Amino acid sequence: MGPWTDVGQNITVTYLPQVSFTFANVVSGGVTIVNLTQTGKPAPLGFLLLGKPPAYYDVRTTANYSGSITMTLMYSDSGLNSLEEKNMVLVQWNNTSGKWENITVGADTMHNLIFGETLYLSVFTVIVPCLEISTRMGSSIFLMRYNWQRPSAPRLPARNGIRKPTSIRIMW
Ligand SMILES: [Ca+2]
Questions:
Q1: 74-113 as b/e, with b when 16 or more CB fall inside 10 Å?
Q2: Spacing, Cα 107 to ligand 1 middle (Å)
């Protein structure tokens, strides 16, 4: 069971304690549940999931609501450099498009909070931009993602003794 979500405006429900939602307008009350899991959809191209293991917040409610939902999520900045923290993104899974959607509206990197705004509930997570290197060898393409803070240079996989990348993409 999750917290009861009451009828009214600007109704905030808090979990765990690192995640809270504020519903602009709850039409009829219900129970809102956050299921925290470590497995889910992979990060989109150019990003890594934040945390090892990552955290997925699967959110459902039996309340009827209208208008926006604001999400506040406390994250751990352990192992992140300032550039990564500044460019992290709060995303939510869109079942219709089959893609992660950026819902970020702001962040407080001092207090390790990231804020998002959405019109519906689904699965939420935080992603961090990464170095992405794709290597084509014959008909195979190898895709590798590296954290920016990784101290050593990325190593390309050896296959038949070949180590030379044919393309390097850096995505943000
Ligand atoms: Ca921080």
A1: ebeeeebeeebbeebbbbbbeeeeeebeebbeebeeeebe
A2: 10
